[in-house]
Amino acid sequence: MTTHSAIMDDDILKVSPSHAEGLDTKVVDHSVPKPESIRNMSDAELAALQKKMVRQLDCVIIPIVGILYVFNYVDKSALAASKVYGIMEDLNMNTNDFATAISILFAGYIPFQIPSNLIMTKIPRPGLSASVWGTVSALAAIVHTKEGLYVQRVFLGVTEAVFFPGVIYYLSAWYTKQEIGKRLAALFMFQMLGSAFGGFLAAACLTLDGHHGIAGWRWLFIVEGACTVGCGLIFSLIMPEYPHNARLLSQTERDLAVWRLENEAGAGEAHDDSTTMSGFKLAILDPKVWALIFCMGMIQAMGSTVNFFPSIVQTLGYGRMITLLLTAPPYIFAAIWFYTFSTISDRKNIIYPFIVVGIAMAAIAYTISMATLNTGARYFAMMLIPATVAGPQILVYKTLNLHIARPYQKRAAGVAMINSIGGISNIWASYLYIDAPHYYVAFGTCFGCAALLFTTITVYRFHVRKLNRLLDGTSEEVAQAMKSGVTQTQVDLGWRFVGY
């Protein structure tokens, strides 16, 4: 982040990675005064307090949202594993019917994300949404027709809509720009571990096939749904609120938590009186939001491979048990990859190069998958697929939270829009997986989406770099940049579009 130069003030402490990582602190000029409770603290005392606070948040917030995300992802993707179990035969489904069952979830999921995220900005504590969607997920165990499965999937989409965009917004309300990337990566690491765990759980549930006259795929939904309901009830009681009213923190820590975020991008949840609808309107009118939505659409189309991943792995020719176990290592590799690049991204403020690396890895994986039936080569490609999908996804979410930081209602609307409108790709992409084992249509389309993603994010890079040059220019140029969504407070803080 570029800052105004050279005005040194002992009363103002720069919010930087050094506070969380224990490096040297720096002092610069900012326009946001310190709250009374921390005004007389030295730089060293503030750094120590912030380090303690961030570690406390990491020990409470990240495990809770991470575990809930595991169950969110497992519940959502259980249908992919159930295909290996024989759900298609039990419900008299053909390939097109199964694709409909996958895609129809988004008929409920997509429309409800934007309103749920806008409402979330006015709700002080998260609700019991995990227990609700866990219950709906478990109900899949009692369906006996494909039509019944369609209805269950629609309601599962409705009940899960609040969670993912809500969590992205929630984390951005707690962590600074130097911290958010690693925490988003942690969230996606939980997703990958959830996918790996889901493979092991699915294999374990297969051993229950026939117990008490219940098919293995029905046991899968029962077990996963029950675990989600239990964790949702427990975590809803202990999950912290927002920084300005969190009972987890002392009053001094709450003041610091609010100040350090507002010192970075302007007034946030505690002090911004903008209306929810005004923030939604600002998001709709910002071309940068729509560019990132298109990028997410391409990423979600590429991510459709995850919805069929057990079936893709099954083309290696192994039995059901081995197939489900082989789905785990690619997600474990993806988790390690996420943590590595996100740590570097946070420390160096690098976003664009890592997106390009992810796109290149995706192109390699799709090419191999279409070109050969060699078991080793194909499994190498499968090892890459989860990492190449979610890697750019993390960074696009990070981009939106950093570049559309204020007003916070605009950020909340942007997060919901990027996830919901971008998620439309999941509907049409579900019908591409029709020509196993090469899946030419699916992987060819994903390759094209990767190319479009590269083109769009590169154009976006040139645009925000131009805006940064304007912000460094004359007052007339700064005014021109402000027409693209930069607030006066951000200009006063020396705020810039970072990572590109």
CATH level-4 homologous superfamily? MFS general substrate transporter like domains
CATH class identity = Mainly Alpha
Give the biggest sheet. Answer: none
3D shape: globular
Strand content: under 5%
**Helical proportion, percent range:** over 70%
Q: What is the N-to-C order of secondary-structure elements (H for helix, E for strand)?
A: HHHHHHHHHHHHHHHHHHHHHHHH
Mean pLDDT: 81
GO molecular function, one term: transmembrane transporter activity
Subcellular location: Membrane
Main location: membrane
Organism: Ophiostoma piceae (strain UAMH 11346)
Summary?
By secondary structure, this protein is mostly helical. The chain has helices spanning 17-21, 43-85, 87-90, 95-103, 105-120, 129-138, 146-160, 163-172, 177-206, 216-238, 251-265, 276-285, 287-302, 304-307, 309-314, 320-326, 328-348, 352-371, 375-403, 408-420, 425-429, 440-471, 475-482, 488-493.
Explain what the structure shows.
The chain has 500 residues and is an all-alpha fold. It has one domain (17-493): Up-down Bundle (Growth Hormone, Chain: A). Helix content is 71%, strand content 0%. The chain contains 24 helices and no strands. The protein has helices spanning 17-21, 43-85, 87-90, 95-103, 105-120, 129-138, 146-160, 163-172, 177-206, 216-238, 251-265, 276-285, 287-302, 304-307, 309-314, 320-326, 328-348, 352-371, 375-403, 408-420, 425-429, 440-471, 475-482, 488-493. Helix 6 (129-138) packs antiparallel against helix 7 (146-160), helix 12 (276-285) packs across helix 20 and helix 13 (287-302) runs parallel beside helix 20. The longest helix is centred in the N-terminal third of the chain and has 43 residues, at 43-85. 51% of the residues are buried. Mean pLDDT is 81; it is low at 1-30 and 266-272. The chain crosses the membrane at residues 57-74, 98-115, 127-144, 150-172, 184-204, 216-238, 289-309, 321-339, 351-373, 379-400, 412-434, 440-460. It is found in: Membrane. Keywords: Membrane, Transmembrane, Transmembrane helix, Transport. It comes from Ophiostoma piceae (strain UAMH 11346). GO terms for molecular function: transmembrane transporter activity.
